[in-house]
């Protein structure tokens, strides 16, 4: 597996911090209920925080006397006690509490005063809620890393190092939880604009054969302006980034105004496959070596994520192809099995979609349904293909196929959930199923879907020992066995679909 080339010690720090991170407490103080609710709801989306709210500075002060908070988000203009007065009291009560001030009337004097008093940041309304959540995350990571030293005077170098590691930790976590390459590209752009800032950010994929670039994400400017004006200007810089395989920083002066650009290569096994480019056109966004470090961190982490994902998907597809071959080999003996598996897969997925299962769950069910009878490969022909009724001993052999199927998949950790779905697809709601006699909600939900669909398909298709039922008759059997064999909710969903 590929590994990141970034400093190992810093990575260990990140991992230790994430492993030991406890829930942070946050106090939100704002007399505007709409703004307060927006902030509280956004923060509550994370499981890492507990949030308490206060409607003004006086109530906020009471909450601060009752308990310690890691972070306070506070409006400046409030009746009774304003945000600056509350900031003074916070410094008296607990100097280690981080404070972010927000206001609809920002001025330079107010900002400077807030920072001198001890606020870690100052946001002007209206603000982007994602920017606020980013700042909350990074400042609390810094606080966790400072620990007992947060109330001592630390050197600038130490503070910068902690800030760098906290920001990289945020970058790593954000990219790690994206779902696919398209999401990773968009998240890279979002991260670059949040962490570094700028007016426009774009990602290009590099076509090595034609020595050309194709933009896949563009943010901050119109597509027409980007294509006609910015792309021609960026091309020489993109080519130089590919040639050097290293990040580039350019600060140009044009008629007294700065034009600043940073680029970083996306690399896989030492070969460049893309470039992220970030540009700013004002003195506010004149980039530094530190910005270059951050954009390279974004590019490195995204490249590693994409490469690992491609390797995983390749391995996953090869495994599924192998198991599909096993199902096909059963079909060579019993033509019913493969066709049955495909029908069960399609109806199971449809039910899962109607029941609002998560995409990941639907994919698990898709795989499990395809392979649910793979254990039949170990069932002798004289039992599997018997045209008449099975004896009790023969039925006991057939009943082993869910466990055999699970055992076939057991050596593969990436199919752990699928094999459990397969193991339990012949359990019954009343606990009289096999192999484990699970009952009711103890049966995995996706197994319960598979149980209903497997039985319905078996009833509505010809078998050597009986003819297919009409759909109405099969539906009647499903209804008859609600809360005996089947989950009522799933049976009702099947009927609704039919």
Number of helical segments with 4 or more residues: 19
The number of distinct β-strands equals: 10
**What spatial form do the alpha-carbon principal axes imply?**
globular
- Unreliable residue stretches: 1-21, 148-154
Structural class: alpha/beta
- Mean pLDDT across residues: 82
**Helix-strand pattern, N to C?**
HEHEHEHEHEHHHEEHEEEHHHHHHHHHH
Distance between the termini: 46 Å
Side-by-side strand order of the widest sheet: 2-1-3-4-5
In terms of quaternary structure, the protein is: single chain
Determine the fraction of residues in helical runs and give it as a percent range.
Answer: 40-55%
- The fraction of residues in strands falls at 5-15%
Taking the sheet with the most strands, its summary is:
5 strands, parallel
Gyration radius (Cα, Å) is: 30 Å
What report would you give on this structure?
By secondary structure, this protein is α/β, with parallel strands linked by helices. The chain is built from 19 helices and 10 strands. The chain has helices spanning 8-20, 33-44, 57-66, 83-93, 108-117, 129-146, 156-176, 181-195, 223-244, 289-333, 335-354, 359-371, 381-384, 392-398, 401-409, 416-423, 445-459, 471-480, 488-497, and strands at 24-29, 49-54, 71-75, 98-103, 121-124, 200-207, 212-219, 248-254, 257-268, 271-280. A 5-stranded parallel beta sheet has the order 2-1-3-4-5, with helices on both faces. A 5-stranded antiparallel beta sheet has the order 7-6-10-9-8, with helices on both faces. Helix 2 (33-44) links the parallel strand 1 (24-29) and strand 2 (49-54). The two termini are 46 Å apart. 34% of the residues are buried. The model is unreliable at 1-21 and 148-154 (pLDDT under 50).
